[in-house]
Specification:
Elements lengths: L6 H12 L2 E2 H11 L8 H13 L3 E9 L2 E8 L1 H32 L12
Antiparallel strand pairs: 1-3, 2-3
Length: 121
């Protein structure tokens, strides 16, 4: 993926970087990673996972039956790892640039206090 990742996609890939997860585990992990700013509904998550699988960024890790229901686990693929790494670096550079500009702005806004040379007369 050459374009910047949307935040939900970035968070899904980030969650999968730790370990394979099933859908409801991903919903909880994305919420935790985003301090509950991003709340994925199951339909949205599974649509995103289908797109990520089709793009080769995520792979099905395994399937198991739990309480009579199929639970599918997903993992980050090598391409997904590379994409997440590249996006993380892009975001890091953006944060670094913004931090530098804000620091410059703060320095420019500080009043300059004259120094007294040689003491008081």
């Amino acid at each position: 993926m050459d374009t910047p990742l949307r935040e939900p996609t970035f968070l899904i890939l980030t969650a999968l970087a730790a370990a394979p997860m099933h859908g409801y585990g991903l919903i909880g992990e994305v919420a935790a990673l985003s301090d509950n700013r991003v709340s994925l509904r199951p339909g949205t998550l599974y649509g995103a996972l289908d797109r990520l699988v089709d793009a080769g960024l995520v792979e099905v890790d395994r399937e198991e039956v739990v309480d009579g229901r199929l639970r599918r686990y997903y993992r980050l693929s090598p391409a997904g790892d590379a994409t997440l790494s590249a996006e993380t670096e892009r975001l890091r550079r953006n944060v670094e640039a913004a931090t530098t500009r804000l620091a410059e702005r703060a320095r420019a806004a500080r009043p300059i206090t004259p120094s007294v040379a040689g003491g008081l007369a």
